[in-house]
Design a protein that fits this description.
By secondary structure, the protein is an alpha+beta fold. It is built from five helices and 13 strands. The protein starts with 17 loop residues before the first helix and ends in a 6-residue tail after the last helix.
Length: 195
């Protein structure tokens, strides 16, 4: 197998395939996304972002596993949304229904979008980039996108039909028909109530 030697900066100037990105990621400690063939480096997250991502992931994972609903993927997981040029996005948390995963875990990027994507906004995230990710998820089949905003202590829920609503810190996040029965009091996310 030929060795792929690429110098990766914040964003590459040439087109890269999803398979090439997978090779790069295997040799490198950085996280990347592939936006229409261009590599975008994703800087390490801060402690608040990591805690919130971990909290949502843990609760979703336990719930999905206990109810045999599907698979919950961590932030490093890439989802191949388009080819030629390739589009690989990585949500902070992704959920895929059980029937869509069977036989598809092959050590590559997951083919297609998650059914539910969670994005936790970091201080260095630009609003337009967050909205681009939301639109990429929704236009490729994601049924729910939760955008967690630590600064305002809100979660915005986006759906493919164009509806969106904002939950406050005292509200409860609901998996709707994508993760049926899943409920997460947001007070727990912001440490106002433990348990």
């Amino acid at each position: 197998m030929p060795v792929l030697e690429l110098e990766i900066g914040p964003e590459t100037e040439w087109l890269v395939t999803a398979d090439e990105l997978l090779e790069i990621s295997a040799r490198d400690e950085n996280r990347y996304e592939l936006i229409h063939g261009k590599v975008r480096t994703m800087p390490p997250a801060g402690d608040e972002h990591g805690f919130m991502t971990s909290s949502v992931n843990a609760r979703m994972h336990i719930y999905a596993e206990d109810h045999l609903l599907g698979y919950v993927f961590a932030a490093e997981t890439g989802f191949l949304l388009e080819s030629n040029p390739d589009l690989v996005r990585a949500p902070d948390v992704g959920f895929v229904r059980d029937e869509r995963v069977k036989g598809k875990l092959a050590g590559k990027y997951f083919p297609g979008a998650p059914d539910l994507a969670v994005e936790v906004v970091s201080p260095n995230d630009r609003a337009d980039e967050v909205q681009d990710k939301v639109q990429d998820w929704l236009s490729h089949g994601t049924q729910l996108v939760w955008v967690v905003e630590p600064r305002t202590r809100t979660v915005t829920i986006y759906r493919p039909d164009g509806t969106a609503n904002v939950l406050q810190a005292t509200d409860t996040l609901d998996g709707e028909d994508v993760l049926p029965g899943f409920r997460f009091p947001l007070q727990r996310l912001w440490g106002q109530e433990k348990g």
